[in-house]
Automatic annotation (TrEMBL), chain A:
<keyword id="KW-0560">Oxidoreductase</keyword>
<dbReference type="GO" id="GO:0051536">
    <property type="term" value="F:iron-sulfur cluster binding"/>
</dbReference>
<dbReference type="InterPro" id="IPR042204">
    <property type="entry name" value="2Fe-2S-bd_N"/>
</dbReference>
<protein>
    <submittedName>
        <fullName>Uncharacterized protein</fullName>
    </submittedName>
</protein>
<dbReference type="GO" id="GO:0016491">
    <property type="term" value="F:oxidoreductase activity"/>
</dbReference>
<dbReference type="Pfam" id="PF13510">
    <property type="entry name" value="Fer2_4"/>
</dbReference>
<dbReference type="InterPro" id="IPR036010">
    <property type="entry name" value="2Fe-2S_ferredoxin-like_sf"/>
</dbReference>
From TrEMBL, chain B:
<feature type="domain" description="FAD dependent oxidoreductase">
    <location>
        <begin position="6"/>
        <end position="343"/>
    </location>
</feature>
<dbReference type="GO" id="GO:0005737">
    <property type="term" value="C:cytoplasm"/>
</dbReference>
<dbReference type="InterPro" id="IPR006076">
    <property type="entry name" value="FAD-dep_OxRdtase"/>
</dbReference>
<dbReference type="GO" id="GO:0016491">
    <property type="term" value="F:oxidoreductase activity"/>
</dbReference>
<dbReference type="Pfam" id="PF01266">
    <property type="entry name" value="DAO"/>
</dbReference>
<dbReference type="InterPro" id="IPR036188">
    <property type="entry name" value="FAD/NAD-bd_sf"/>
</dbReference>
<protein>
    <submittedName>
        <fullName>FAD dependent oxidoreductase family protein</fullName>
    </submittedName>
</protein>
Automatic annotation (TrEMBL), chain C:
<dbReference type="Pfam" id="PF04324">
    <property type="entry name" value="Fer2_BFD"/>
</dbReference>
<dbReference type="GO" id="GO:0016491">
    <property type="term" value="F:oxidoreductase activity"/>
</dbReference>
<dbReference type="InterPro" id="IPR041854">
    <property type="entry name" value="BFD-like_2Fe2S-bd_dom_sf"/>
</dbReference>
<dbReference type="Pfam" id="PF07992">
    <property type="entry name" value="Pyr_redox_2"/>
</dbReference>
<dbReference type="InterPro" id="IPR051691">
    <property type="entry name" value="Metab_Enz_Cyan_OpOx_G3PDH"/>
</dbReference>
<protein>
    <submittedName>
        <fullName>D-Octopine oxidase</fullName>
    </submittedName>
</protein>
<keyword id="KW-0560">Oxidoreductase</keyword>
Length: 95, 366, 472
């Protein structure tokens, strides 16, 4: 089939995979990759529960505004879309 | 076309609305006017602390009555009686605490002194560096954000008309009373009550009266939702900190640190040089606060006169005009003193004395 | 001693970065501040360090080129730095920053705010489900991490962005389950004359659409996503056709997907300028509430200038030119000779025409709240439904501030960015008032959430500047 937009997926080289955890679950992600993207890639979409109805929520704006992707690292709340994966990073949620 | 009312109330904050409700129940037909929305001035943006430990000694009887009013309003205003601790961290603050809370207790507030072990067993997340503390089981808070919603409902229920975004630009007299000029048709009223908070000075000037009203610009901040960290209202011996954690987990931090701006400009600015020490003091009292993110800081204009006692009575030199405002602890006392003011205008003798707006302010000034 | 910069520039997107390059050619001291790790803004967002190599795109080339020019220019950059408040102190502006968990302050004689835009969202049932991301959010994911939002994505929204996102998903090897846009082919044809100003961009967009058609990706013109299904992740969406006035027509279409990219056009980021005292006005044709500034960037506040999309959405090309114009204005303000350049201004006007045509297409044709059912969450932070907000309005809360006070819409962590347009719309509908009469809620600092520990820092209790206690 003719593609006017080529498929570049095979031409992307990424850094080595490193282990990190989300609520204690072991995951692998590319070193220095954006955490929200790495979580999404690892199939972790549900990052928090909404106040009120307790509904699952995940990353939405990807630019540090909506606060939907907030997780906890060392007890401090941070937007996962503004963090990067590092070996041994322990990410917690308040799910 | 114009309308006629028994009394026009300029200012739809707690005091203006409470007075309107009393006047309506006493048979008068009031109208409430506000330059913005109801309850969006000091009534709606203060930290919501209901603490007898930070009330002035002479106003204590009014504050005690105020607490009864808030308890009655209950859930509709987010009222919670949690008890409250006032903390001192240095010798000088401990002295101040002892001196002040003793006088307040003598004035009728159920305040007791407690050991720092008692404080820590009740509030284990507070700092270990408490040197002295007092406790008052009457203390608590309400949600000041709900002021507008609450009084809008009460006024509607009582069929009291109100106008929002209706700034009075000038006031003239006719044979029947007052004519209030606004953007829309003039509003006529036989009497007038000025309850415009920090905007009292320009409003009184429309009637040729110079009220010595100043505005304090108090800073308040709120954090994101946090797990439960403390249950009571936390204050500081100097009065420069109030802190409470709401049912939803957010932590509200006040203490009267000063921002910048004037009511006339309509814009109060949060300044970092006040906000930072305010939050530092809060974090000192509650170290785990450090992990909370501040979501919003804002300022509210609190009106006062040089002696820091209320204006509540007849506007000097203008028959049928009244003024109510500048109450230190106005959130706590507002609903009660508004009712007293209503009684006074209705010609009844109020339960407690009012405060003559024509007094010599310099005499009692501290 | 206090260090004073001549011109600080907040935002290193096309407007801010090119402004910095102009200022960098003079003797004056400047500083370029941005919350991302590298300059580029949203449109030219830099790659994560996790990407060792990847084919270049027009966006990555523009971004890399900009970053190289900045590096060569010697412009001082302060990246990974968030601005949480801006205040005037005497003769200077003070920019309060947050970097690595530490608060700082910068004193500046003049400030250029180039804070860009945020994305508007259209609340529909299920839009809060994990797996739904913004269209602009999707572009961030592609540009920064070169990742896909899922295996099969529905891409829905307005203007050219919807086709860019769909095309990028194809380029990165993903599957586009459907493209859904409220714009019709006739809407696009109507803008054709303005788009002729940039035949290159027109050609590029044409290729995106042709590729999608060749790949048999369904394109639903004149449609919108009505609801998203799934509990803790997306499993599908329901579409509906829109009438010419934007109201939904009967006849639902179901599409299976594991992810949705959903956008409703861009809106100027005005909060920083508002906190600095700049008024706003309603310009729906430029994205909604925009900051009041002259075309040369000057504002009613002395020494404060605005550049780029924050004064109206006109796109990256116009922003780049505007940054250069505004830099000259700021230089003149601090006493540097810098003549205005008529050719530059002409180029800006030309680029603006193209950008404004794109913005017109991006402004939601559909009623932005029309697809929200009564139980649809409108305020994400506080999980407030359309019904809760309408009840509050019904009870007499008829301003953005009043709804915020009564229901907390806008009091959550996003500060109202993702609900204020919807709330205003609901007030307008219920009160039969124009949107221009319903001002956004009063802005409050911090511009971004700030940890208390960052503000308090390490301090000695005795050093706290405690004022006199209140009267007894």
């Amino acid at each position: 089939m003719i593609r006017l937009v080529p498929d570049h997926s095979a031409r992307i080289q990424r850094s080595e995979k490193v282990p990190f955890t989300f609520d204690g679950v072991a995951l692998m992600g590319c070193a220095d990759e954006n955490l929200a993207a790495a979580l999404m890639q690892a199939g972790v979409l549900h990052l928090r529960n909404a106040p009120g109805d307790g509904a699952p929520r995940g990353a939405f704006c990807m630019m540090g505004l909506c606060q939907e992707c907030v997780v906890f690292v060392d007890g401090q709340s941070v937007e996962s879309c503004r963090l990067t994966v590092s070996p041994g990073l322990a990410v917690k949620s308040r799910r | 076309m114009s309308e006629n009312h028994d009394i026009a109330i300029i200012g739809g904050g707690i005091m203006g609305c409470a007075a309107a409700l009393r006047l309506a129940s006493g048979g008068m037909a009031p109208i409430v006017l506000d330059r913005g929305d109801l309850g969006q001035g000091a009534s709606g943006v203060n930290a919501g602390t209901l603490s007898l430990q930070i009330k002035r000694v002479r106003l204590m009887p009014y504050a005690l009555k105020g607490h009864e009013e808030w308890a009655r309003m209950g859930d509709a205003v987010g009222f919670r009686r949690t008890g409250g601790y006032t903390l001192a961290f240095t010798e000088r603050e401990a002295e101040l605490l002892t001196e002040r809370q003793t006088l307040k207790a003598e004035a009728g507030a159920p305040i007791e002194f407690v050991t720092n072990n008692q404080v820590l067993s009740a509030e284990p997340n507070l700092t270990r560096r408490v040197l002295a503390a007092s406790y008052c089981h009457e203390d608590g808070y309400a949600n000041s954000s709900l002021t507008g919603q609450y009084y809008r409902g009460r006024l509607r229920e009582a069929s009291v008309p109100y106008r929002e975004r209706c700034a009075v630009t000038s006031i003239t007299r006719d044979t029947q009373g007052f004519v209030l000029h606004t953007g829309g048709p003039p509003i006529k009223a036989r009497r007038i009550l000025l309850a415009a908070g920090a905007w009292l000075k320009p409003v009184a000037a429309m009637l040729g009266v110079d009220l010595p009203v100043n505005a304090r610009i108090n800073t308040v901040s709120v954090t994101e939702r946090m797990p439960p960290l403390f249950a009571t209202v936390i204050g500081h011996a100097t009065g420069l900190l109030t802190m409470k954690q709401k049912g939803n987990g957010t932590i509200l931090i006040g203490g009267g640190w000063q921002g910048r701006g004037t009511p006339q400009e309509g814009r109060g600015e949060v300044i970092a040089d006040s906000l930072i020490p305010n939050l530092s003091l809060a974090q000192f009292a509650l170290p785990k606060l450090g992990q909370a993110r501040v979501l919003r800081s804002w300022t509210g204009f609190e009106a006062n006169v040089p002696d820091f006692y209320p204006l509540a009575g007849e506007l000097p030199g203008v028959p049928d005009a009244f003024v109510l405002g500048c109450v230190r602890g106005g959130y706590t006392i507002g609903p009660y003193i508004g009712r007293l003011m209503g009684d006074f205008i209705l010609g009844h003798s109020p339960e407690m004395p009012l405060f003559n707006p024509g007094r010599d302010f310099e005499k009692d000034a501290t | 001693m206090r260090d004073i910069v001549d011109i600080s520039i907040v935002g290193a997107g096309p407007a801010g970065a090119t402004a910095a390059l102009v200022v960098g050619q003079t003797e004056c001291r400047s500083l370029l501040i941005d919350e991302q790790r590298q300059a580029g803004g949203q449109v030219w967002r830099a790659k994560d360090r996790s990407i060792l190599s990847a084919p270049a795109t027009p966006e990555s080339r523009s971004g890399d080129n900009l970053r190289e020019r900045l590096a060569a220019s010697g412009v001082s950059q302060m990246t990974d730095t968030r601005v949480w408040q801006i205040e005037r102190q005497g003769e200077h502006w003070v920019i309060h920053t947050l970097r690595n968990g530490t608060a700082g302050r910068l004193y500046s004689r003049a400030v250029i705010l180039a804070t860009g835009a945020r994305e508007e969202a259209q609340p529909v049932r299920g839009w809060t489900t994990p797996g739904v991301i913004g269209l602009a959010g999707a572009t961030a994911l592609f540009k920064q991490s070169i990742r896909l939002p899922g295996r099969a994505s529905v891409v829905a929204g307005t203007g050219p962005l919807v086709f860019f996102v769909a095309s990028e998903i194809r380029r990165l090897g993903g599957t586009v389950a459907a493209v859904v846009t409220p714009n019709t082919r006739a809407d696009w044809l109507a803008r054709l004359p303005s788009m002729m100003a940039r035949p290159d961009l027109l050609w590029r967009g044409g290729r995106w659409v042709a590729d999608l058609m060749l790949a048999s990706v369904p394109i639903y013109w004149g449609h919108a996503v009505k609801s998203v299904s799934g509990d803790d992740r997306v499993i599908g969406v329901t579409l509906c056709r829109l009438a010419t006035d934007g109201t939904p027509l009967p006849g639902d279409i179901g599409i299976a997907a594991d992810s949705v990219c959903l956008g409703g056009g861009l809106a100027p980021s005005i909060e920083a300028a508002q906190l600095a005292g700049v008024a706003v006005r309603y310009r729906p044709d430029l994205g909604g509430w925009v900051s009041e500034a002259e075309s040369d960037g000057s504002t009613a506040r002395e020494g404060l200038f605005l550049a780029g999309d924050s004064c109206g959405i006109r796109g990256a090309v116009a922003a780049e030119l505007h940054g250069q114009i505004v830099a000259r204005t700021a230089l003149r303000h601090i006493g540097q000779a810098s003549a205005s350049d008529p050719a530059l201004e002409r180029a800006y006007r030309r680029a603006s025409r193209f950008g404004e045509a794109m913005t017109a297409l991006s402004v939601l044709r559909a009623d932005p709240i029309g697809l929200a059912t009564p139980d649809t969450v409108v305020c994400r932070c506080e999980s407030l439904t359309r019904r809760a907000i309408e009840d509050e309005i019904e009870s007499g809360a008829v301003s953005s501030n009043a709804v915020k006070s009564g229901q907390r819409a806008g009091m959550g962590p996003c500060g109202g960015k993702y609900c204020q347009s919807s709330v205003a719309r609901l007030i307008a509908l219920q009160e039969n008032r124009a949107l221009s009469e319903i001002a956004p809620p009063t802005p409050r600092p911090p511009i971004r959430p700030v940890p208390v520990s960052a503000l308090a820092g390490d301090f000695d209790y005795g050093d706290l500047p405690m004022p006199k206690p209140a009267p007894l």
